[in-house]
Design a protein that fits this description.
- By secondary structure, the protein is mostly helical.
- The protein is 84% helix and 0% strand.
- The chain has helices spanning 3-13, 17-48, 50-57, 62-87, 91-121, 129-132, 136-172, 181-205.
Length: 208
């Protein structure tokens, strides 16, 4: 066994994969409880104001929502490809796929900014005179829409920062074929963020 293989195995011994993965799953569980509370709140109000929710949902741009869904699903693929590449020792490819993931995330936020801007431009945002003059069901729907998509957007932004850190670590060799648990955990977080949107899309856009 040559010196590089010995160093690689020595490094592997000091990486607590089980503990790291367990910590990430526990974190994601708390996030799931948080979003679960929002989904429960949505379900209660939707049962109270079904017609208002259906009518207001029809006013959202489903095409834009569908495009953003496709963008995030694709970003999950590029993130998975990055992990596969680093496992094979293909550092350059891993970095490229991480950069693509960040690019897609920025596209998602850009589209969401456009969508929010359109609603705000029409005065349909929490606390606005136009919205407060609408029915109670419409007020609640838009409030939930902005809160739920806003919190999700913050999670996307956090994911961008996290992936950027992973790129830096990959370039420095901290993340490598011998130690990629940080990148795997980042991938788990990113897949979670994508899954949340997969639930938000039909709940907000497809009930009308």
């Amino acid at each position: 066994m040559d010196r590089s293989q010995t160093a690689g195995r020595a490094l592997e011994k000091h990486v607590d994969y089980t503990g790291s993965k367990m910590g990430m799953w526990l974190f994601l569980f708390t996030e799931l409880l948080f979003f679960g509370g929002l989904f429960l709140l949505y379900a209660v109000y939707r049962s109270d104001f079904p017609q208002e929710f259906y009518a207001t949902s029809a006013g959202l741009d489903r095409t834009v929502g569908a495009i953003n869904t496709l963008v995030l699903i694709t970003s999950s693929l590029t993130m998975a490809c990055s992990i596969t590449a680093i496992k094979k020792g293909e550092t350059k490819s891993a970095v490229i796929f991480q950069l693509l993931t960040i690019g897609l995330a920025l596209v998602f936020l850009g589209i969401k900014y456009y969508e929010w801007g359109a609603k705000i431009g029409h005065g349909m945002y929490p606390g606005s005179d136009a919205l407060l003059s609408a029915g109670q069901g419409e007020i609640i729907f838009y409030s939930l829409y902005f809160v739920m998509t806003g919190i999700h957007g913050l999670h996307v932004l956090a994911g961008i920062v996290l992936i950027a850190l992973m790129i830096r670590m990959t370039l420095k060799g901290i993340i490598s074929t011998h130690d990629f648990v940080r990148l795997e955990n980042t991938g788990l977080y990113w897949h979670f963020v994508d899954i949340i949107w997969v639930y938000l899309f039909p709940l907000l856009y497809l009930i009308g």
